[in-house]
């Protein structure tokens, strides 16, 4: 226990850093995922192509490579931000591709007759999607979206290699101080477990409230 009690502030800073990355990147991923899913089912061909390219590129790019591209590439175009913001961008954009596909799969579960009925009433594509299709699709995508955000929380560990304060990076400081590396990683694992179990509990509650009974 002394590894934790003697370095509680260090673990606390890392835990809060990981929590912030997870929350901000999740919000960005959900927003971008919704937009890209809308593009992928849009009646406009150029939007469908853009959404397809976005998903294909990001899903097939290693996350570490995306971190390098964001942290080293964007400053060349004059965009200079704190490293934490760059990490949020990398994590959020990467995860948005998986959120997009989860939402698109949910949209495909909604009978086509629902959309046709909405259009026959004079609704626009945006109204049909937001008022008719997505509310029904949301019920079936709760579990996969929850799993994707849990993966995001664990993927945030990569940010520590880019000078971002997060939970996994605390092992470097504690290792230099001579603490047992095994117990150092045990408490790091406990921190990640707390975050992932909280996300799991939240989506379990959402699924019980709005999910489709199976």
Q: In a few lines, what is going on in this structure?
A:
The chain is mainly alpha-helical and 214 residues long. Helices cover 78% and strands 0% of the residues. The protein has helices spanning 2-5, 8-40, 45-59, 63-73, 83-109, 112-120, 125-155, 170-176, 181-210.
Structure description:
With 214 residues, the chain is mostly helical. Helix content is 78%, strand content 0%. It has 9 helices and no strands. It has helices at residues 2-5, 8-40, 45-59, 63-73, 83-109, 112-120, 125-155, 170-176, 181-210. The chain is elongated, with a radius of gyration of 20 Å. 31% of the residues are buried. Residues 15-203 form the ABC transmembrane type-1 domain. InterPro entries: AA_ABC_transptr_permease_3TM, ArtM/GltK/GlnP/TcyL/YhdX-like, MetI-like, MetI-like_sf.
Which descriptors apply to this entry?
mainly alpha, 9 helices, about 210 residues, single chain, elongated
